[in-house]
Write a structure and sequence with these properties.
The chain is α/β, with parallel strands linked by helices. The protein has 2 domains: 166 residues, Rossmann fold; 76 residues, UDP-galactose 4-epimerase, domain 1 (Alpha-Beta Complex). It contains 8 helices and 14 strands. The strands form 5 sheets. A 6-stranded parallel sheet has the order 2-1-4-6-7-12, sandwiched between helices. A two-stranded parallel ribbon has the order 3-5. Strands 8-11 form a two-stranded parallel ribbon. Strand 1, helix 1 and strand 2 form a beta-alpha-beta unit. Helix 2 runs parallel beside helix 3, helix 4 crosses helix 8 and helix 6 crosses helix 8. The longest helix has 18 residues. The radius of gyration is 19 Å and the shape is globular. The two termini are 31 Å apart.
Length: 271
């Protein structure tokens, strides 16, 4: 089968390309320069293009990555299926698990800090405007894996622990995030592209992990993990994954169980 991964040089894109090739897909990986001339049938298409940690400093580029380039491609190209990677960040103002269901109304206040959220939502709207049932939106929580960027909270923490054996977390111990394994992400992505019955899916573990739980796991491995006194508290709501569980029998991997292997991978010479 033919597939095209857009944004193949990024963390998710790299792993997705590897997974699809294991499944015997013929995978095209056009770079950013090639996007302007891309046309014709792209086969099963996966849109992994995006900005994350630096979106506040580059708002215009963020909008372009999440929706501008997307709009151009949707207008010019054909595809068998199309998967757009969005984010569970759009649920930041949700108060209950019901408000993080895929079909729930989303509360977002326009500001410089929500450029990322709103541009992702615009990308979703563009995809869902197509009368094409094989166009899917995947809302990802915090994706972890052995070669994730050190610009992320977890990537930076693992980098410090693996290289120096110590780390200081700047946020409060009871801050939390939802984490999902890159292995789960790429496996589910291909399954949803081929057989998903819905247009939108939350890809998350459904269980927020406290920073203190990560620190405790690191300490049990003989590492020093402390907290900055008076650190800000930051927490996102639990993500509803009922749709994923009911349709695919999803049982997420555990970050806390995977932490030793992540630390080992980060400390290896080839990491």
């Amino acid at each position: 089968m033919k597939a095209t991964v857009l944004g193949a040089s990024g963390f998710i894109g790299r792993h997705l390309v590897r997974h699809l090739r294991k499944l015997k897909y013929t995978v095209a990986t056009p770079d950013r320069k090639a996007l302007k001339s891309l046309s014709g049938d792209l086969g099963d298409t996966f849109y992994c293009i995006g900005l994350t940690g630096n979106f506040r400093a580059r708002p215009l580029s963020t909008v372009d990555a999440h929706s501008g380039i997307l709009a151009d491609l949707l207008e010019r190209c054909d595809f068998r299926s199309f998967v757009y990677f969005s984010s569970t960040r759009i649920y930041a103002n949700a108060a209950t698990p019901q408000e993080t269901q895929e079909d729930a109304l989303i509360k977002v206040r326009p500001s410089a800090d929500t450029t990322y959220d709103l541009s992702k939502m615009l990308g979703e709207a563009l995809c869902l405007s197509l009368d094409h049932p094989s166009v899917k939106v995947l809302r990802l929580s915090n994706v972890y894996g052995p070669d994730q960027s050190k610009a992320t909270f977890l990537g930076s923490l693992i980098g410090d622990l693996s290289t120096t054996g110590t780390a200081c977390i700047l946020e409060a111990p009871d801050s939390s995030k939802d984490y999902i394994s890159i292995e789960d992400v790429v496996c589910l992505t291909e399954k949803i592209a081929q057989n998903g019955r819905h247009r939108i899916y939350n890809l998350a573990s459904g269980r927020p992990i406290l920073h203190e739980e990560i620190a405790k796991t690191a300490r049990a491995l003989g590492l020093a993990c402390t907290f900055k006194p008076g650190g800000n508290w930051r927490s996102f709501p639990g993500i509803n994954i009922t749709r994923l569980q009911n349709e695919f029998g999803f049982m997420p991997k555990s970050l806390l169980e995977d932490l030793p292997s992540l630390l080992h991978a980060a400390s290896s010479p080839t990491a």
